[in-house]
Amino acid sequence: MYRVNTSEKGKRYFMDQSFFIRDIPLYGDLILSPMAGFSDVPYRLICQEFGMAMSCLEVVSMDGVLWKNKKTLQLLNFSPVERPVSFQILGNDEDKLAEACRMIEVFRPDVIDINMGCSVSDIAGKGAGAGLLKNPQKIGRIFKKLTTILRVPVTGKIRLGWDHKSRNYLEIARILEDNGASLIAVHGRTRSQLFRGKADWDAIAEIKHMVKIPVIGNGDVQCVADIERIKQHTGCDGVMIGRAAVGHPWIFQRKDREEIAYSKKIKTIQRHLSLMQAYYGEEIGVILFRKHIIKYVAAMPLATEIRPRLVRCRSSAEIMELMNSHMDRIHEHKAA
Ligand SMILES: Cc1cc2nc3c(=O)[nH]c(=O)nc-3n(C[C@H](O)[C@H](O)[C@H](O)COP(=O)(O)O)c2cc1C
Questions:
Q1: What distance in angstroms lies between residue 35's CA and the mean position of ligand 1's atoms?
Q2: Run of H or E including 229
Q3: Which numbered atom of ligand 1 lies nearest the CA of 243?
Q4: Is the Cβ atom of 221 under 6 angstroms away from ligand 1?
Q5: Would you say residue 2 has pLDDT above 50?
Q6: Domain residue spans in the chain?
Q7: More confident residue, 327 or 43
Q8: Does the C-beta of 242 come closer than 6 Å to ligand 1?
Q9: Taking 80 as the threshold, does the pLDDT of residue 13 lie above it?
Q10: Which CATH architecture has domain 261-335?
Q11: Cβ(187) – ligand 1 distance below 6 Å
C-alpha cells in the first residue's frame, strides 16, 4: 500500500503516479535530495506533508553498516508513514557493499541507492562516492551483483564525472541501465566542481534521452520556475531539490518563499521543532533545529536582525517567542 499525497491541512487526495521505480509507484515528481545532517526523520516528515514523493535517507557508509556502528544504524530509522523509502549507501568494494546492502535490506526499505556523488576527499579519494566514477567497470560489477541478490530495486545517484576532462556520465548511465539499475539521479556537476559553477542540465537531458529507466534531475533548482525549467529542458521524470528545500518545504507544493505568509511559516516552524524534540529529545532537538531556523528566516524582512538571536535560543519557548515578536517588528517596519 503506498501513500498518496497529503495536502497541507492533512486532507488526503489521490494523484496518479508520476513514474515507477521498477514496481514502486511514485506519487508526485519532487523529492528532497539526500542531505547528510538535514534530511532526517523530522524534516522528511515535514516535506512529506507538503507533497514530497519519496523519502531519501541520508547516506550511510558500507563500513559503518558492516561494523554495526550505532550512529550509522540510527541514520536508517524511518517512520512507518514514510513510504516509499530509499536507503543510500556508499562504498568501494562490491563484496562488502553486497554484504552491507543485504544487512540493511532487513530494515525493509523500498529502494537501495548507491552513492556515486559524494565529493568529500576522504571518501571520493578512496574510490567510494564520486570516486567510483573513475572505475566504470567496478560500477557495472556492483550493480550486477546487487540487482541479483537484493529483492528491492537498486538505483544510483551520480555526478557527471570526476572532472571536466573525464565527464563519463553517458558511459556510466549505460552501464547502470545494462546492469539492472532501476533509476538514475543525476547531480549535474563533476566531482571537482563540488557545488561550484552551474549545473549542466544539457548533460542530464543527454542521459534521459539515452536510457529507458527513469531519470531524476538535480542541481541548481532554486524556485518553482526552476522545477518547470529543468523538467522542460531535460525531460527528466522527477526533480531532486536539496539546498533550496532547507527552510522551505513549501517548494514541494510548488510555492515560492515569497508566497508563504509569516503566520504559516510560524506554524510550520513550530511543528518542525516539536518533531525534532520528539525525535532527538528536548535539548538536542533545539540545538539541531538551529541550522533549520536560520534557513526558514533567510529571506524574511529583517532576517539579519533576528538570526544571531535565534542561534542562541536554548528552548522551543524562546524560539517561538522570538518569532512572534519578530512578526510584530515586521508589521511595524511595514507600517513605518
Ligand atoms: C549539506 C549537504 C549534504 C549532502 N549529503 C548528501 C548525501 O548524503 N547523499 C547524496 O547523494 N548527496 C548529498 N548531498 C548532495 C545533494 O543531494 C545534491 O545532490 C546537491 O546538493 C545538489 O542539489 P541542490 O543544488 O538542489 O542542492 C548533500 C548536499 C549538501 C549541501
A1: 5
A2: helix 224-234
A3: 27
A4: yes
A5: no
A6: 19-253, 261-335
A7: 43
A8: yes
A9: no
A10: Orthogonal Bundle (1.10)
A11: yes
